Amino acid sequence: MKLSDILAGTETEYGLLVEGRDPTHQVQDSMEFVQSSPGPFFAGWDYRYESPRQDLRGFKLDHLAVDPEDWKFESDSKLAQTDANVRADRVLANGARFYNDHGHPEYSTPECFGLRELAYWDRHGQDHVWQTAIAYREHTDRNVRVFKNNTDFHGAAYGTHESYLCSRSLGFERLYASVLPILIARQLISGAGKVGAENKTWVDFQMSQRADFFAEAANAETLYRRPIFNTRDEPHANISEFIRLHVISGDANMMMSNTYIRVGLVKIAVALAELGVAPAWAISDPVRSFQNVSRDLSGNGRIELDRGSHTTALHILDDYLTSYARHCPEDDEFLVLERLCRRRMEAIATQSEDPTRLIDWAAKKYVIEELGEVQSFRDPMAQSLDLAYCDLDPDSGLFEGLLEEELVDDPLQNDTEPTQDSRALPRAIAVSKFSDDILACCWRSIVFRVNGEPREVTLEPNRRYSQSLWQLSTVESFIRALESETPS
Amino acid sequence: MIIQGERTTRPMSPEPERKLGDEGGPTKPDLKKPGGPNELMKRLKKVDPDQAKKYRQRSGQ
Question: Which residues of B touch A13 (CB under 8 A)?
Fold first, then answer.
C-alpha cells in the first residue's frame, strides 16, 4: 500500500470580517460573499447523499448539538442556515466546492491522491477566496477582510477538516485506535499556533488553534462538544465499500509544507490501519493529552497512557514513521514526508535549527515576539498579530510578508497547477465544458440532462481518470466515456 | 469558461524541484530582525492593535 492510494481532501472555513457588520449578519454576509465567487462554476449542490447525523458506531443522532452562545445569533437572523439558497453552493472549474457553511465561506478542495497536489489545491483555495473578496468589495462597496484561521479568540471556532477514503471493513474500533494518536501528536509539527486560551485556563501561546474546543475523544458533533475523532459516517461514496474518515481536529495552515505533513501523517495512520499494523498507543485521556501537547512548546507535553505511564508527541510521531517505513518501504512520497517530519522533530527535540522557518506555530510566535516586539502575550496586540499572520490580503498578510522576506522555508509555494486524475477531474470537466447540461452535482455523482431526461453518472472514488476526457466535445460522448472507463 | 489548453498543468512527482526538508541539512538559527524599512516591518506597523478585540465570528464546524 502507498500513501497515494488514499484519496483525500481538505475543507477550510474562512473567517470573515465585513466592515460595519457583526455576527448577526454573518450568515447573510457569507452567502453574499460566496455569491460573488468568480466563475466559471455550477451553482447548486446535490444533498441527497448527505448524512451528517449518521454515526460510524452504528447509530443515528436525533439532532446535532449547537453552541448555545452562537444560537443567540441564529435566533436574531432571518436566514435559516439549512436553506439551500443560503448555502450558495458553487462547484468550481477544478472540481472544488465553495459555499457558505454556518456563516463562513468554505473551500473544499478537489479530491486528490497525492499530498503535493492536495497542498497545491488547499493553497489555491486561499487565492480563490481572495479573488472572491475583491469581487465582493466591488459588488457591495463594503470593505472585507478574510482570515485562514480557526478561532476568533472569543470562544467561536470554525473548522479546517480533512477527508480520507478508507475501507468499510476497517470499522470504527480499528480506525479510532490507529488514527487517534497521530491526531494528538501531529500538531507538534503542523499546528498553526494561537495566542492565549479559550477554555478558561490561560496560556501565553499554544501550538493548536483547536485544542481548547475539544470536549470528548470521539463523537459525531462538529458545532459543539467537538471531538478529537469525529464519527460522522457520510462516505460520499458507496457506503457498503467505503468510510470517509472525517477529521476535524487540525488547523488551517499557511505553510503548504505543513498541510503536506498534517494530511500525510493521517494517511500513514490510515495505511497502517488498513494493513492491520498500526502502533498500539492506549491513550487514557485523549482530550487532556491533546491540550498538554498544544501547550508545551518544548515537545514534552505529557500524553497519558493506560496503566499510569505516559509518552510524548515526538515518540508517537517516530513510532508511526518507523512503522510505515518497515511495512511500506517502496513509497517515494513517504520518503519526502518522512524527511519533512524528521527535520521538524529534530529542530524541536535538539534545537539543531530554528523551527521558525519550518512550522506555522513557530513562525507566528517569532513574528509576535521578535518582530512585533510585544512585551506580553496578554497585550491585545499579540492576538492582533496572530490574526494578521493569516490575513489573506497579499498586501497586508504577515505570512505573505515572511514569504517575501524569505524568512520561512516553504518551496511548495512555487508549484504550478498539477494534472488531476481523481474523480474531481470529470467534475472539473463537466463544470468547464458542460455546465449547461448539469442538473445536480456532488462528490459522488453528476446528474446530467440528456434529451430532456435526468441521467446520473457515478464518479468512482478509487479510479484514476484519463486526461483524454478533456477532448470529448459532446455531453453524450463524455457520459459514455465515464461509464465505460475502467479503473487503471 | 476554462479551456484545458489555457491551463498550465504538469504531472507532479512526489519530489519538489527543491528538495523538501533536505536543504543542506541542519542550520543554525539565522533569523534576524529585518533591518531598515523593509516590507515586512511596514506590514507590522499597519496592524490595528485592537483588530482581534473587534474580531467576532459565528461558531462554525
Answer: 60-61
Amino acid letter for position A9: G
Partner-chain contact A340 B20, CB within 8 Å: yes
pTM, full prediction: 0.94
Is there a contact between B11 and A418 if contact means CB atoms under 8 Å apart? Answer: yes
Residue pointed to by grid coordinates 460510524: A56
CA distance A241 to chain B (A): 26
Q: Is A370 on the interface with B (CB under 8 A)?
A: yes
Closest by alpha carbon to A428, among B10, B11, B1?
B1
B45 SS3 class: helix
Per annotation, catalytic residue among A101, A319, A386, A410: A101
Contact A223 B38 (CB under 8 A): no
Q: What is the mean pLDDT of residues A30-55?
A: 96
Please say whether the beta carbons of A477 and A469 come within 8 A: no
Q: For the segment A192-204, what is each residue's pLDDT rounded down to a tens digit?
A: 999 999 998 999 9
* Side chain identity, residue A107: Y
Residues A45 and A99 sit within 8 Å (Cβ to Cβ): yes
pLDDT digits (tens, 9 = 90+) for A210-264: 999 999 999 999 999 999 999 999 999 999 999 999 999 999 999 999 999 999 9
User: In A, which residues are within 8 Å of B22 by CB distance?
Assistant: 339, 343
Look up the ipTM and state it.
0.92
